[in-house]
Design goal:
The chain has helices spanning about 50-55, 80-85, 105-120, 130-140, 175-190, 200-220, 235-250, 270-275, 305-315, 325-340, 345-360; strands spanning about 5-10, 15-20, 30-35, 75-80, 90-95, 125, 145-155, 170-175, 195, 225-230, 255-265, 320, 370. By secondary structure, it is an alpha/beta fold. It has three domains: about 5-65, no CATH class; about 75-100 and about 205-370, Rossmann fold; about 105-200, 3-Layer(aba) Sandwich (Rossmann fold), CATH 3.40.50. The strands form three sheets. It has a six-stranded mixed sheet, with helices on both faces. It has a four-stranded parallel sheet with strand order 8-7-6-9. The mean pLDDT is about 95. The structure holds pyridoxal-5'-phosphate and zinc ion.
């Protein structure tokens, strides 16, 4: 078997080094991204598993490291009814609610677990508001004997599923999501285990990228604007990197504008950006944030905001913040017009589209891509 050769490079200073499973940041503070040979990279159209189809653009050396956990191959729907409601003729919904655990996070679990297995890591620590941890817990059954410690705040315990797997240990912390992540990091250091790192784990960003590569391939015209609800922004980061790779490969003619959507009750990035700040200020940070869209309740995104701001300003996109009413309405439209039951985070993304469309910031004929990142669970939008 020929092994794929690729390295990690710092996005700021360009320093290059061998790829590591969980690469922290470069000594200059820049992010380390896997870099592939885009002159030879191709999409293996016949492959059923997304990670096999886009293998050339994933941080895996061996084709047989690929995992398929029921992730991906989701529809990208031309939403004519909903589009006409919003005055958009080219509205496309990437229906990520159709993943195995009903969120796009299955894509990151498929990639991260494969990368860890390939690099010989069999036990690790992670934390999330529920969806990523659920995807890890689900994905574990497709690996050898891997073990994961999932850290979470008390308010988010009920959002964790498939944790009955023998390899899963759930640690409940009496704190919010940011506090639970800190506890997980301390536990990992204490036990000598790998803390997978969330946004700073490139395997996560690269896995989430595949929702977008699929969508770019499914749309009859390339997207002019892309919307996603963000917490850390790792999904949009992957989407942007994937678009740059597709540009280099001649599979996209230009980069779309990227719009990152938050909910008004927890919108630290939108607030900082609105005031022209290049960093998250103390007044932007929320302790124990509340809101309908629980998946994106990150009160302190200080360490990822600069990367997201670079993407929104660099592409002419931006940040948006939507109210509870806007999310509730968007969720109803998605159910009634297109028959897609979504969680409030996904509804927030569509509410962001509605807001910009109403302000005349999207042309009627512009192809718009919305990532519907998560579905309902047991008839509930986000709990
Ligand atoms: C349903 C859903 N949408 C959006 C997000 C945003 O994630 P991020 O900005 O970290 O990529 C998450 C993260 O947990 C999620 O679960
Ligand atoms: Zn650097």
């Amino acid at each position: 078997m020929t092994l794929k050769d690729f390295r990690a490079a710092c996005v700021r200073c360009g320093a290059s080094r061998p790829y590591a499973a969980v690469d922290s940041r470069c000594s200059c503070g820049g992010l380390l991204d896997p870099v592939y040979d885009l002159t030879t990279a191709r999409v293996r159209e016949d492959e059923e598993a997304p990670s096999a189809r886009y293998f050339d653009l994933l941080p895996l050396h061996r084709p047989d490291s690929v995992l398929h956990i029921g992730d991906g191959n989701t529809p990208c729907v031309h939403a004519r009814t909903l589009g006409s409601r919003l005055g958009l003729d080219q509205l496309y919904l990437k229906d990520e609610t159709r993943n195995a655990t009903r969120t796009t996070k299955d894509r990151m679990a498929a990639c991260v677990l494969a990368v860890l297995q390939e690099q010989g890591v069999s036990e690790f620590v992670a934390s999330s508001t529920g969806n990523s941890s659920t995807s890890f817990a689900w994905g574990l059954r497709f690996t050898g004997a891997m073990k994961v410690h999932l850290f979470t705040g008390r308010d988010f315990v009920d959002r964790h599923q498939y944790t009955h797997h023998p390899g899963v240990e759930l640690h409940v912390v009496d704190d919010d999501f940011v506090g639970a992540a800190a506890a997980g990091r301390a536990f990992a250091a204490d036990q000598g285990l790998l803390f997978e790192g969330g946004f700073f784990n490139s395997g996560r960003r690269e896995g989430l990228k595949l929702a977008y590569l699929e969508a770019y391939d499914q749309m009859p015209r390339p997207p002019a604007v892309v919307f996603q609800a963000i917490s850390s922004g790792m999904g949009v980061y992957g989407a942007h990197k994937g678009a740059r790779e597709y540009l280099a490969m001649g599979r996209l003619p230009a980069l779309p504008r990227f719009v990152c959507v938050q909910q008004l009750s927890c919108a630290p990035m939108w607030r900082a950006d609105r005031d022209g700040s290049d960093h998250i200020r103390p007044q932007d940070v929320l302790r124990r944030p509340r809101g309908l869209a629980k998946a994106i309740l990150r009160g302190d995104p200080s360490n990822t905001y600069p990367f997201m701001r670079a993407i929104t300003t660099g592409t002419g996109g931006g940040f948006a913040a939507v109210s509870d009413d806007e999310m509730v309405r968007a969720r109803r439209w998605l159910a009634e017009d297109e028959g897609i039951p979504v969680c409030f985070a996904a509804a927030a993304a569509l509410a962001g589209v509605a807001q910009l469309a109403a302000r005349g910031e999207i042309g009627r004929d512009e192809p718009v891509l919305v990532n519907l990142t998560g579905g309902e669970r047991d008839g509930h939008a986000d709990d």
